[in-house]
Automatic annotation (TrEMBL):
<dbReference type="GO" id="GO:0006355">
    <property type="term" value="P:regulation of DNA-templated transcription"/>
</dbReference>
<protein>
    <submittedName>
        <fullName>Uncharacterized protein</fullName>
    </submittedName>
</protein>
<dbReference type="GO" id="GO:0016593">
    <property type="term" value="C:Cdc73/Paf1 complex"/>
</dbReference>
<dbReference type="GO" id="GO:0000993">
    <property type="term" value="F:RNA polymerase II complex binding"/>
</dbReference>
<dbReference type="InterPro" id="IPR031101">
    <property type="entry name" value="Ctr9"/>
</dbReference>
<keyword id="KW-0677">Repeat</keyword>
<dbReference type="InterPro" id="IPR011990">
    <property type="entry name" value="TPR-like_helical_dom_sf"/>
</dbReference>
<dbReference type="GO" id="GO:0006368">
    <property type="term" value="P:transcription elongation by RNA polymerase II"/>
</dbReference>
<keyword id="KW-0802">TPR repeat</keyword>
<dbReference type="InterPro" id="IPR019734">
    <property type="entry name" value="TPR_rpt"/>
</dbReference>
<feature type="repeat" description="TPR">
    <location>
        <begin position="99"/>
        <end position="132"/>
    </location>
</feature>
<dbReference type="Pfam" id="PF13181">
    <property type="entry name" value="TPR_8"/>
</dbReference>
């Protein structure tokens, strides 16, 4: 039996008005209250289904919400349905909608780690819309993640030739240069962005501040001229972070940069300013770390990124609260970096080492060794110039051997002895090569 319901024109008009209202709520709430956005869009879908007119953009928006909630299969179904509806519209309007939806679908394939389908989707999109810069960026990002750095760089260079002033593209290229440790090139590039394209670009300001801060931090020249230059570098970095906050008072990245400068006393002891005693310097570090923890807790609410947990871990480590440091580093490594961020693996290694040294515990030292092995697995070729990392790993291996031999025979096994002897042999070879190295750079202790 089929039931036909007649609807008056006034009821239809009311339904349309209701539809517009829910769409407006969805737009207004998408940043602050995503759950309200989801509810409003679901109501919009219900009304659209009742009228028999479901637009492709509505399906795309609902797919985006499912995508953001990690319901990838449901999101894919909605994107695909949206694509079909957009294709049926045709014309420039349909093509514009198809481009947007296809990009979202390609991003979903990336999140599902289906890189073949993602590449096909981006290639199809760029065949019709070669000027779609975000798709070029994602292509480069996929290649970089596959360690095809040169190919990624070529894509970015070609894109920059055609879209020199695109700030998103320039931001990604800056990030790529920093990730590949090309700090001088990155510094020149980001300064060019600020000088020639947009002085108030907050991302570029934060990137410039980060580069200046790191370059100053790595300077170890003890002469007075170099120390003065180091201090000026820290001052310029702090001023640049402050400038970013002037343009965007809610910029959590800039706020985090200033907190790091405070925690490390960048304008004081870290700049080479003389401290009365080691005890006073230690107390200052502990106080600064405590103050920084309070601010990082607030930043954590607005910046959903692993770097916040890493910095919280640094603060706990400075306070010798190694269990809390390990917990923070673990959260960053597993939740955000999937165990592949080599810097975080080294931080975990360092905290487990410090905890083991404090407790004189061989099992705890073994945890430090576990992370050193994970580091070696993730770094295909350790740079010969990275002597500090080579030294740190060798130091842990030697310390584990010492701890094991200090244990009573009843608490150690033959297998343990065989493993640590092999590690100690490797450590001695590393120490020997570092001792014979006549270059100026000196490794740092853990």
């Amino acid at each position: 039996m089929k039931i036909h319901i007649s609807v008056s024109p006034h009821a239809v008009a009311a339904a349309v008005d209701d539809l517009e209202m829910h769409l407006e709520v969805a737009c207004l709430r998408q940043e602050e209250q995503p759950e309200r956005t989801a509810h409003a869009l679901c109501e919009t879908l219900r009304i659209s289904e009742a009228s028999g007119q479901i637009g492709p953009l509505l399906l795309n928006n609902l797919g985006t919400l499912q995508h953001m909630d990690s319901h990838l299969d449901m999101a894919r179904s909605m994107y695909e349905a949206a694509l079909m509806k957009a294709a049926s519209i045709g014309g420039s309007s349909g093509e514009a909608m198809s481009t947007l939806i296809l990009y979202n679908l390609a991003r979903l394939y990336e999140d599902k780690e289906d890189l073949v389908m993602a590449k096909e989707a981006y290639d199809k999109l760029l065949t019709h819309r070669p000027e779609y810069v975000d798709a070029r960026i994602r292509q480069a990002h996929m290649l970089a993640n596959l360690n095809q750095v040169d190919d990624a760089h070529e894509i970015l260079k070609h894109a920059l030739t055609a879209h020199t002033s695109n700030l998103n593209l320039r931001a990604y290229y800056t990030s790529s240069l920093i990730q590949n440790n090309q700090l001088k090139v990155a510094k020149d590039f980001v300064y060019a962005t600020l000088k020639d394209y947009e002085r108030s670009d907050v991302y570029s300001l934060c990137a410039a501040a980060l580069i200046m801060y790191n370059q100053s931090r790595k300077s170890r020249d003890p002469n007075s001229k170099a120390l003065e230059e180091r201090k000026r570098g820290f001052q310029r970095a702090v001023e640049t972070y402050q400038k970013a906050l002037q343009f965007d008072p809610l910029c959590a990245v800039a706020a985090q940069g200033l907190v790091i400068a405070t925690a490390e006393d960048a304008l004081g002891a870290l700049s080479g300013v003389t401290v009365a005693s080691i005890v006073e310097e230690t107390q200052l570090w502990i106080k600064n770390a405590h103050d920084a923890l309070d601010v990082f807790a607030k930043i954590q609410e607005s910046l959903n990124d692993g770097c916040v947990y890493v910095n919280i871990g640094h603060c706990y480590h400075a306070r010798d609260e190694f269990d809390c440091a390990i917990e923070s580093y673990e959260t960053a490594s597993t939740r955000y970096y999937y165990g592949h961020n080599t810097s975080v693996l080294l931080y975990l290694c360092r905290s487990w080492y410090a905890k083991a040294s404090k407790e004189q515990s061989f099992p705890t030292m073994n945890a430090a060794l576990k992370y050193s092995r994970m580091f070696n697995v993730n770094v295909i070729h350790l740079q010969p110039s990275d002597k500090a990392t080579m030294y740190n790993i060798a130091m842990i291996q030697q310390k584990a051997t010492e701890l094991l031999f200090e244990l009573p025979p009843s608490k150690r096994t033959l297998r343990d002895l065989e493993v640590v002897i092999g590690q100690a042999t490797h450590a001695q070879r590393v120490f020997g090569s570092l001792t014979a190295d006549l270059s100026a750079s000196v490794p740092c202790a853990v």
